[in-house]
Amino acid sequence: MSIRLSPAILDLIEALKKLPGFGPRSAQRAAFHLLQNRDGALDALGEALSKVRGGVTRCKLCNTFTEGDICPVCLDEGRDPGLLCVVESAADQMALDSSLAWPGFYFVLMGRLSPVTGVGPGDIGVDQLMKRISVAVEEGILREVVIAMSYTPEGDATAYYLIEALKKRWPQLRVTRLARGLPAGIEIEYTDLSTIANAVYSRRDA
């Protein structure tokens, strides 16, 4: 006779299974750990989730996650306004910035194009990206846009789409892509910092 878990515990396990890296067993272990540490881990997680849900939004300039209208990176006056790096996610942005190889600003997409699942340009923030670039070009400050997509099938498709769109609209703008030193099929956030830095320094014209 198997043990029947309560609906609340099953809901917690199902919610954890939706997180990257969690399978059925790891989600179950995490759920039981939280329940066994109700006064510590569970309460801390609940409080953190509540703060995130109520206070975290998207930066109006770069689309990353922030607690204010404009994120700290976009407010950093020490960065080069002529350089813009387009990344797939906030996790990729953090990885690139941690490499200390990128001196410019960012734009964070909401994923990658995926025709198979119906994810199009409008779903990942391409329109907002184009508006950001348009303003920077009109102000005469933007020199280069780096397309920092992972070398995965969907990453390549997204990169090619963006490169063609940018070249067609702003032929005078330098458009580059990170060097293929990045491992094929591996997302940027899971790549070591030295490899990321080398990919930035060795970026090539698209």
SSE layout and pairing:
Blueprint (H helix, E strand, L loop, with lengths): L6 H11 L6 H13 L1 H18 L1 E2 L6 E2 L13 E8 L2 H9 L5 E5 L12 H4 L1 H13 L5 E5 L4 H17 L4 E4 L15 H9 L2 E2 L1
Parallel strand pairs: 3-4, 3-5, 5-6
Antiparallel strand pairs: 1-2, 6-7
Helix pairs in contact: 1-2, 2-3
Overview of this structure, please?
Helix 1 (7-17) crosses helix 2 and helix 2 (24-36) crosses helix 3. The mean pLDDT is 90. The chain contains eight helices and seven strands, in the order H-H-H-E-E-E-H-E-H-H-E-H-E-H-E. It has helices at 7-17, 24-36, 38-55, 90-98, 121-124, 126-138, 153-169, 193-201; strands spanning 57-58, 65-66, 80-87, 104-108, 144-148, 174-177, 204-205. The strands form two sheets. A five-stranded mixed β-sheet has the order 4-3-5-6-7. A two-stranded antiparallel ribbon has the order 1-2. By secondary structure, the chain is α/β, with parallel strands linked by helices.
